[in-house]
Design brief:
Length: 190
């Protein structure tokens, strides 16, 4: 790989993370200061809702009812350690496939956005978006959650692509072996 790859990837990674953090924190601040509590603002026939919520737990409020010390240990300290390990992994594995690399970068950017909330908003994450049709709706989420979801989608897509490439390589190997086997067999088996 070219030596220039690492600085370019790191520059773009830092840019992505900063953009995720700026948009995430700006939209959360706007939601915190302007959205009414316990009230929904609907758009496009209730497809999109702005709805302020503070989440003390993980996705879907998992763990929100744990004692505060446990929540801080899991969602504060645990998330901080995870994000440090993810950053270390990205630096050490900078030559992996671009789709995988940037998938992890988006997860890191979104994770940092929610981590900052936990640090500066008394252990809660501000959520304010909800999308759906009728009774089929998403959980309430934020820009950081969108970055994490995009990162996961990129990782899944890269796994599918890698699986397809491996299957193609296996088929190509079989195609290469088959003519050699056919030529070595006796044309008159009797």
């Amino acid at each position: 790989m070219p030596k220039k790859l690492f600085p370019n990837r790191m520059f773009l990674s830092i840019f992505i993370i900063v953009v995720c953090l700026v948009f995430d924190q700006a939209t959360k601040t706007i939601a915190h200061e302007n959205l009414p509590r316990f009230h929904k603002i609907s758009f496009i026939n209730d497809t999109i809702r702005l709805q302020y919520a503070e989440n003390a737990g993980a996705a879907f409020s998992i763990g929100a009812n744990l004692p505060e010390a446990w929540r801080w240990a899991i969602f504060g300290l645990g998330q901080g350690i995870f994000l440090l390990l993810l950053a270390y992994y990205l630096i050490k594995n900078r030559h992996q496939m671009a789709v995988q690399f940037y998938g992890f970068v988006f997860i890191l950017g979104g994770g940092l956005g929610n981590f900052l909330d936990r640090l500066y908003r008394d252990g809660v994450v501000v959520d304010f978006l909800n999308v759906g049709f009728g009774t089929i709706r998403t959980a309430i989420f934020n820009v950081a959650d969108m970055a994490i979801t995009l990162g996961l989608a990129l990782l899944i897509w890269s796994m599918i692509q890698q699986s397809r490439e491996e299957k193609k390589e296996d088929l190509d190997a079989i195609d290469d072996e088959l003519p050699a086997k056919l030529q070595s067999e006796d044309p008159n088996p009797l």
